[in-house]
Amino acid sequence: MSAATEATSLESVFISRPCNTNGLWELTNKRPCSLSGVELNGNKLVKLFYLDESGISKHEAVLVVAGVAINADDQWMEVEQYIDQLISQHVPQENRDGFSFHATDLFHGSGEVFDRNKYPLDQSHRILKKILEIPSRFRLPVVFGYLRKRQVPPSATKRFRRAENSKNHAMVYALCALAAERFMKDRTPFGEITMLVAENNTETQRFVKEMHGVLKGQNAHAMSMHGMFESLSDQYVGLLPITKIKDTVHFVEKKDAVLLQIADACALIIRYAIEEKQGGQPFVNALSVSNPGVFKVDPDTGGFMVLDFVDKPVA
Fold first, then answer.
1. Is the pTM for the entire model greater than 0.85?
2. What is the dihedral of CA 282, 286, 291, 295, to 10 degrees?
């Protein structure tokens, strides 16, 4: 199994010139519609993209949103059974009810179950590698958007920091959605569409709402998101407006959606790959099928990547 990739980078993360809105599309009144508010190009909802993020702390320089795609008809059951098997094998009986894996706990040896003082760190690492191998094992495409955060002056107000944080998240969620759109347009049968699934929490819902505004072009004149729509519409010609992703984002609890646990692990390790974090290489290898070069991106701006898993050609 090998990883086939397609990557693209932003030339500029936030363009500062005035936004030209002459080319904005007309929003449809028909339902359902796409994330960009236009008619969907297809009517077969086959794949779902489960999204999670990494890098939300102000101390982390890179922000990543990763999406793992699954065919709900013929892949969901075997993937969930595999995760359940990992829980049965590695999580104590008294902790299994409602349990979900968290990649940071497995990597650092932390949390109630995987505290390194009572649970062997090497075993936690083996579990994390098994989770990261799931996309290639079950041929689940992975897409992600990434963004180098701009440095915020120490003197910045709390309001400015909050606005900057919102811009960063809206942009990186939008980049991940564009990666999913690219995958759907280039690598799925005619007529198929997809829907995004994200964790059900207040912050994620706020960021997704702001992403929705970006992808509809609704904030083209808004100073709070200055330049974001222009950046995306200039540099991703052919992907906007989005036509392959249903407008409604579905929110679920992480413990109730095993794919969110996989997306959580992918987002963390992709961020570590971009940052070239010490100790991250074995986990990058597990995700990339020992091909870490697929994550070589421009770490100083932002962009997105499509990571698909295909059989190696027969010699």
1. yes
2. -80
Q: Which of 22-31, 118-127, 172-181 has the lowest mean pLDDT?
A: 22-31
Which residues face 308 on adjacent strands?
4
Residue 20 confidence (pLDDT)? 42
Specify the amino acid at residue 200.
N
β-sheet with 2-9: strand ranges across: 2-9, 302-310, 142-148, 62-71, 44-54, 192-199, 250-252
CB 61 within 8 A of CB 298: no
CA atoms within 13 A on the CB side of 171: 32
Cα–Cα dist 83/99, whole Å: 11
Q: Angle of helix 258-275 relative to helix 121-132, nearest 10 degrees?
A: 100
Alpha-helical segments (H) within 4-118 = 76-90, 103-108, 111-114
Structure tokens at 290: 């020992």
Residue 237 is classified by DSSP as B
- Could you tell me the two tokens for 201? 């929490």
Distance separating alpha carbons of residues 258 and 236, to the nearest angstrom: 31
Q: What's at 107, amino acid-wise?
A: F
- Give me the phi and psi of 149, to 5 degrees please: -70, 140
Give the C-alpha separation, 219 to 227, whole Å.
Answer: 9
Q: Which of 6-20, 27-41, 114-128 has the highest mean pLDDT?
A: 114-128
Looking up tokens 């002056």 gives: 153
User: CA triplet 238, 171, 269: central angle to 5 degrees?
Assistant: 105
* Six token digits for residue 182: 């690219």
Q: Which amino acid is at 120?
A: P
